[in-house]
Amino acid sequence: xxxxxxxxxxxxxxxxxxxxxxxxxxxxxxxxxxxxxxxxxxxxxxxxxxxxxxxxxxxxxxxxx
Length: 65
Fold this sequence. Notes:
This protein is mainly α. The chain is built from 3 helices and no strands.
């Protein structure tokens, strides 16, 4: 269990990190990468960095119980 604000903070952090990783060293703009990351997360697509990190953290929490 985490606080609701922490969940929002983590989701935003993971979206920005995913967008940054996708545009780093490439010709793709950060704004375009961020928009794609937001769309994938909204669709609950596992290609999204934020969704994959969320899934990973939930698995770790389940195994810790």
